[in-house]
Amino acid sequence: MEAKETVRKEMKIKIKSQKVSERRQRSRVVHKKLFLNESFLKSKCVMLYCSKGTGEVETRPIIKQALKMGKKVVLPVTLVRNRNIKPVYLRDIKKLGKGPYGIYEPRGPLNRTPAELKNIDLVIVPGIAFDRNHNRIGRGKGYYDNFLRSLPKKGKSKIGLGFRFQLLDKVPTTKRDIPLTSVLTD
Predict the structure, then answer these.
(1) pTM (two decimals)
(2) β-strand 84-89 against 72-79: which pairing, if any?
(3) What is the fold of 2-184?
């Protein structure tokens, strides 16, 4: 656990030290790769996350493009008591509010419909660091690992999005960590 915290601290500094223009440019490169990705193209229902204010790869353009392509878009709502996330269909992109950890999530009456796990084809997963074996280090609370563990095993792609500097040769892992299908960087 100590090794993960060290990586988290180092990566948070690197993520925050990026200039906004640099982050946007790097994010556009990741977007292009995702928009050509077979799992993304084939998916009918994509679970994303809102990166606003996190310094991570910007996801708002991905959300807009997925909706434009006719895909159903799902965003996570944080369930603090269960240490899990609930996937909710996004119906109104203008109705997002800060959740318990300051991460934007769906709000309002149109954004309350939960998505069934079996309907989600692709999960775009945030991370602080990734490795070449598709492992990830998140923010340290275990929410995404708990959620990914509950997904049906068959036919679900899990893609991490990050910047090149976030991709390491190896990140520390535990038995509870769920590896991804792939990781896309700039």
Answers:
(1) 0.93
(2) antiparallel
(3) Rossmann fold (3.40.50)
